[in-house]
Amino acid sequence: MNTSNEENAVRLVWFRNDLRCHGHTPLTQALAGGGPVRAVHVLCPDQWEVHDVAPLRRWYVLESLIELGEALAAKGVDLHVLDGGDFGGAVDALEAFVAEHGITEIFCNREYPLNEMNRDRAVARRLEGQGVRLHGFDDGMLVPPRTLSTGKGTPYTVFTAYKKRWDAWIEEWDPGAVPAPAWPGGEGRFHGRDRVEALRDGLGLDSALTRPWRPGESAAYKQLYDFVEHQLGDYKAYRDFPAEPATSILSTALSAGTLAPMDAYLAARRAMADAAVREGAVTWIGELAWRDFYRQIMHRFPELAKGAPFRPETRLLEWNDNDEHFQAWCEGRTGYPLVDAAMRQLVTTGWMHNRLRMLTAMFLTKHLFIDWRKGERFFMRHLIDGDFASNNGGWQWSASTGTDAAPYFRVFSPLRQSQRFDPHGRFIARYLPELAELDDKTIHEPGKQPLLCPEYPAPIVAHQGVKQRVEKAFRQARDAWDQQREGDQ
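^ thats the sequence. predicted structure below, dont judge the formating
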C-alpha cells in the first residue's frame, strides 16, 4: 500500500464464526496495510432462532466474543459490537457503521451456508456504491471450497476421492500458519460489551450445563496442545469408544472459530515426527478433511441449505410420522441402551460422541424411519458444536440421502454397536443410572431381564426386519423417481 489515500484508509475486520486473534488472515492483512484498523461483530439473535442455534452454543459464542474483545483491546484494536437482529439487520448495521467511521475496506472470512452467502452478497452490493471493498478469505477451511474439482470440473461428492485429492493438494502447496498480526500497540476499547453480557445473561442457562466447557481462544489452543501431547497417538485405536477420553472435543472450538483449522492441522503434522503418534495423527487429520468436504458440498450445492436431500430420489421416501417414537428418541427412551445413553448425553451436556451421532441418526432414520430433518433440527437445538454443514452432512450420510451416503441397506445394530464399543457398559451406566448395577452382558439387553430394571422401557421397535423394510422403501422411492423422470421426457 503506497499511495497516501491507501495509507489513510480505515480498514474494518468483520468477525463472525472466527472469534480469535491467531491464525486469522483478515486481521493480519488489515493490520499489515498501515493506518487505523477497527473490528466489528454483529449480534443476530433472531437469526439464531431461525437457524435453531442451541442456547449452549450461543453462550459459548458470547463468552468467546467477550474474550476476543478484551484481547483485541489489549493489543490496541477497538472491537465494536453492533445490534443486527437478523442477517437483514446486519447489512443495515454494517452500512451505517461504515459511513460513520469512514471505512474503505472490509476484511472477513467467508462462510458457506446459503443464508450467510446471501448476507455477504447483500453487504457487498450495498457498500459497492460507497466505494468500499469487501475482501474474503477462507480460514474456516484447510482447502477452500472451489479449489478441488474432478477431472470433469465437477465437485467431488464421494469422500474417498475428495480426500485423495485433498491430501495431494496440501502436500503440493504445503500451507503454513497465518503470520501473526502487526499489532498497533496502545490500548483499544471494547464497545458494546454490555450488549454481549445482557444477551448471555438472558439465556438463563444452568451452571451445571456451562461449567464443563471453556469458551474462548486461549482455552481452545490449550485444549489442542493437550490433546496432541497426551491423546493423539491413541486416537485411531480408541476414538470409537465413547467411555474413553480419546477424542479431542475440538469441534466446538473449530465451529465457533476460536481455533484455526490450519493451526490444528499443523499441530498434528508436527506430532507425526514421532512414529508412535503418526497413525493417530493421520486418522485425526482425516476428520479435518471430512469437515472440509462437507463445507465444499454445502457451498457448491446451496439447495441443501433449504432442506433438500442430496440424492433427489429420496425426496419421494414416505417417512413415518410417529410423534411418540420421535419423542422417545429425543428423551432417550427407545429401549436400546446405547442409543438412549447417547441421547441423554446430548441433552444433558450439549455434546455427543461422533460414533454415537451416527448410531442415533441411523436409528431414527432406519429403525423408526422418521425424516432425518427432524433429527438434524433436534441436534442443532442442543449441540454446543452445532455446525450446519457438518451436521447436515452427517445426518444425510446416516439417512442414506446425502453425498457419499452409507448404502441404504446399511443399518447399524444397536446391540452390536453397544457390545463392541462399550463392552463393559461404562458409558451406558454413566447416562442410564437405572442400568448401572447390571452385569456386562445384561446391560446391553436389559429387556431380557426386565425384573432387574423394571423402570427401563422395552425396545420400541425390533431390530429384526428393519433392513428389509428400509430396502423396500428406498426401492419404491427409486422406482417412483425413475417413472417420474420417464414421464417428464
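Confidence is low (pLDDT under 50) at residues 1-5.
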